[in-house]
Amino acid sequence: MIHVAADDLAASVPDGALLALPPDNSLPSVAIAKALVRRGARGLRLLGVPVSGFATDLLIGAGCVAEVETSAVSLGEAGFAPRFSAAVKAGQIVVRDATCPAIHTMLQAAEKGVPFLPLRGIIGSDILAHRPDWRVIQNPFSQAPDPIVALPALSPDVAAIHAVMADEAGNLWVGRRRELATLAHASKRLLATVERVVPGNFLEDERLAPGTISATYVEAFAVAERGAHPVALLDEYPFDAAYVAAYARAARTDEGFSTWCGEHVYGRTARLAAE
């Protein structure tokens, strides 16, 4: 585990990587997503865990994405994700439909080190016709016909999250969002941004240990204040609905998205004002 800058984290994500991002209510690193845009990443395969939001739309709009596997892409109250919708209509990205339980189940299989896990609830749905990698099998423990879906283990190349804080040992505190521990265990690499670094060791504190991801699973982290913005960060800061709504309006067109990125990703307006 090493402590670097957000742009260094993005530089370590290779083009074409399977990149897992939590949903907007579960601590995605928007700071890493913006750094990937600045780097000019290409061919990324995004995994929504289990749904996709602001960071995914930003990466798609910037031309960083070739494929998205998710159960939904949305900006919540701001409506449809405009760059995702435009890319799908133009045939610029591949969309692999999934469900929330299916994505979690595939990650849990990787976490447990097993090749697959079974899941009920999607038999009879249209989604199976579009997922040949999901197999309907007979329950081997039933004498009567009992079909069940076998889902393959899924191990993302990289997961990018934003935690409230890291300690001196490199442990990350994510509070109530314990599903991020499964993502950390299942992924080949975990990169994180944090609000701050604090003294001590979370794993030695009975109050903090339950909400901690061990440094064992963290490859590197960077301090990035408000690195989840505009999404909420637990009790640190709320969802910035006005910011997301302004993005959604701007990103309806290629020109509007480009202008928005110039200001909010590249900081061109701030630099011009300083000059």
Task: Describe the SSE topology.
Blueprint: E1 2-4, H1 6-11, E2 18-21, H2 30-39, E3 44-48, H3 54-61, E4 65-70, H4 82-89, E5 94-97, H5 100-112, E6 116-119, E7 135-138, E8 147-152, E9 158-167, E10 172-173, H6 179-186, E11 190-198, E12 212-213, E13 220-223, H7 241-250, H8 254-264, H9 268-274
Parallel strand pairs: 1-13, 2-3, 2-9, 3-4, 4-5, 9-11, 11-13
Antiparallel strand pairs: 6-8, 7-8, 9-10, 10-12
Helix pairs in contact: 2-3, 3-4, 5-6
Q: What does this entry look like structurally?
A:
The protein is of the alpha/beta class and 275 residues long. It has two domains: 2-99 and 155-270, Glutaconate Coenzyme A-transferase (3-Layer(aba) Sandwich), CATH 3.40.1080; 102-152, no CATH class. It is 29% helix and 23% strand. Strands 1, 2, 3, 4, 5, 9, 10, 11, 12 and 13 form a ten-stranded mixed beta sheet that branches. A three-stranded antiparallel beta sheet has the order 6-8-7, covered by helices on one side. Strand 3 (44-48), helix 3 (54-61) and strand 4 form a beta-alpha-beta unit. Helix 2 packs parallel to helix 3 (54-61) and helix 5 (100-112) packs across helix 6 (179-186). The model is unreliable at 270-275 (pLDDT under 50).
